[in-house]
Batch of 2 targets.
Target 1
Amino acid sequence: MTLPLTLEIGEQGLDDLLAGRRPDDAEGLPEGLESIMGELQAAPCELEMARGRRSGYGWVGARLAALVVPAGEQWMLHLVPVEFVPDALARLNGLGPRPEGQMASPVRYDPALLAQAVATGEHELTQGLREHWRVEAVWPSGPERVSRRAVEVLDTQEGLWLVTPVEGQVELAHVRPTEVFRRLCGLLPAPSELLAGR
Amino acid sequence: MSGLRFVPPRGWEVLDLPGAPETVAAIAAEPDGVVNRAFRPNFVLTVGDLSLEEQAAGLRSFHLVDREEMDLAGLPCVRTLAHHEIDGRAVVAEQWRVLVPEGSRELTASCGALDYPELAEELTASAASLRRSSE
């Protein structure tokens, strides 16, 4: 199977793959894809992705990762080697060069205010909002404990704002795409972090 | 000669490239001589003959992540961050392209994507050490 692999698949086909079954209409699907997808369901690290109101999911194994995002009525499945996950996430979220300009100072907001501003678009925070996206990695870090690491971004006409929880508030830091990409590269747990959960 | 010099991260090995006198390269040290990274981080300082677009055309799965105009050690510079594939490895390349009277020069740092968070600050610090050779 040649990687990275990207293919569009329907709801039923995706359900079959996630259950480790070969879909009835498997024309064009690489041989063995169902086994890989089935095995990835037991992967220690999962990804939760949100882009606007759309949600996607991911499973990160020792060598391979699968990312599933909505594509109209269908789903888009991306199967990539683990080291390509940061770039896959960057591409899915349209990360690229942004207009140059003065970088603003960080600001803090009440999380509820930010959520409302994103939902309604009626706030200076979200003027020129292109997209609000978030990717979170979740993995076991001990008996009945999980660890999480997230990258959350407000993508606006003026540039990118990194959203980070700080002392009960959220801090918005105006950052270059480089900083967002660096965070995506550090999103997945290191092997030592995964071992901590065993 | 490139007419420029830079200080690579501490402990990196500077390579002798007899066939490329205009190029200076440095490669990350490996503890105990054991190569334990899938892609060994490196710096290359050379004459910038190709535009970014021409470079991109020769790379697999090139993705430009960032581009900014800046000043680097008093020299006009365009910094870019990109991701591409080399022999199946996911590679991040940060490049500082500066203009000197002799022409364009480029300093490129490359490392594996998963190594980038750990190395980013060191790479930036090395790039900031770029100077005219005469200084």
Note: Residues 15 and 126 of chain B are 16 Å apart (CA to CA).
Target 2
Amino acid sequence: MTPAIELSDVRKSFGATPIIRGVSLAIEAGTRQALIGPNGAGKSTLFNLITGKYPVTSGRIRVKGAAVTDLAPYEINRRGLARSFQVTNIFTRMSVFENIRCAVLWSAGYRYSFWHRISAARAVNERAETVLEQLNLTARRDVPAGVLSYAEQRALEIGITIAGGADVILLDEPTAGMSRSETEHVVGLIRQITAGKTLLMVEHDMSVVFDLADRIAVLVYGEVIAHDTPERIRANAAVQEAYLGVPQGVA
Amino acid sequence: MSTPVATRPFAVAGVARAARVRRYGLWLAAAVVLLLLPQSVRTGTAIAVMNQMGIAVIFALSFNMLLGQGGMLSFGHAVYFGLGGFIAAHVLNMAGRGAIYLPVPLLPLVGGLGGLAFAALFGSFSTRRAGTVFSMISLGVAELMAASSLIFDKFFGGEEGITTNRSKAPLLLGLEFTRDRQVYYLIAFWLFVATLAMYAFSRTPVGRMANAVRDNPERAEFVGYSQHRVRFVSFCAAGFFAGIAGGLFAVNYEILTAENMGLNASGAVLLMAYIGGIGSFVGPILGAVVFTFLQSMLSDYTGMWLLYLGILFLATVLFVPMGLAGLLMLHAPVWRARRVGRLLGPYVLTGALGFVAAVGIIGLLEMVHFVAAGRTGTRRLFWLVVAPRTLMPWLGFAALVVAGAVGVRWTGPRAVAAFAEASRPGRP
């Protein structure tokens, strides 16, 4: 089966500083996987390379078998790969509903249309309402996104990511800064929305990682030192030394 | 999160129906007002001012497609207004010679297509970037056109500009456009159509994505949209409607000069949109009407009208950055709660004191203008005849400024407090 995401010897340097130092990684379609590693390991950079935010220095990236190495973010997104951001990245002055609806538009085939009335786009509006309900944000539908609480904005962040129906989903620290109960809610949400899809997430909360992930990739100083099942990662000596030397559960 | 989900669809349907009635009712009312407006005035001057307003409203709305809705601050939007106007003027001349068949009512469309063509040309590279880079390129294009107007003087007519004659074009359905009043209805028609079209544009997929790209260009790319393409589409649409306004200008004034696409004209449309409020659709309409009104009224009374418009702009930026429309909308909750009456007292008091201060400032400025122009003797200011080269009037107006300013400082906070009190939700 073609992997959902396939990296072959991907490298990225900023100036003379190598950040990603030859990563080869295949994420099987239909699995939930986590990318973990200490601060500064290059996890977010790797996300930015996969999603087209940064160009790679060398190496190749494929999404669902198709080469995306030098494509723009919107071209990669149109191939069914969507991402969330570590720092909330939403359309602040638009309403919560509009945020979600904008994320649905391209996938519904509306492109750069100025000949459709958006209020008449029933499938788009219904999809946006459904996502709002999944996020538990229906009551906040018409509020400007910028005035939502932090946890609500994080939920909206995930909502924008999944609204377009992408089947490869990258979440960058979806539970960062959340309380225990908020985290539990988000974990449930992620489990629900990624059912039957491919998930790759960066996460510092080890309980979330071991709860959700089928497989875990460990990134240390720009290299993947292990990629295996949670049990084997837990038992892996190199991982323990590099990363889990601290007792697990510490974010 | 306490809203019961089950009852929402009904509430939404009811609200939607009420909103639809209100929306169509508003457009209908606007059409009726546009039709009846000329009946309410007698003088030709008033018609001329209304014609100018109609053109300005289309132009200001097209500008806000860039700034308010697309987050693009253009310093050269008059380029598309002017080019549309020049093209329309040339086409009108050709129609007058019988070289082509084109009746006057369709001329604004020619202007629009001209504006669109040049917006597509310049927009193809200027919309690659947002923010400062976009603004600088728009300034560069404006300078480029100013230089071109000297180089291509056959097209731009040099210093005299291009004159045209709308009465020579072929007639459509026997409609004549010899008098200002007849032109008014042409402008009113295109004003209505263009406003409706621009409003509709903001409610299309690409219109919504223009808002999204304004708010967060990066995220727009991660939901499938190229920020460059979204800005480009908005830019072309804005150029098209600016060109329509330019075409109407050609019909109305029968002359275009390079000034019409110069930096002053680009600055004026920025002022209109900003004074009215760029945050809402109606803002630029208000701004264009107020700006044109002040422009035509003030220029009859004082040689310093540009200075006063500048002060109005500064005051808007400093104290009411949401513009006139934003200020009005701020009062919507108070209006709905039927508490406007409570604000009347504090507002009238503060307004009267502000007026006193304004009279003082205007008096001082006018006297400075008088003395600086090297004039002697007396002049009329408001209800007084003053001699600016004596001390008394300076003291008098300065006293008004101080009294008004002190008064506003004292009553202003109370007015604000009264507003805060009145806009608090809940029963009185």
Note: DSSP finds 17 helices and four strands in chain B.
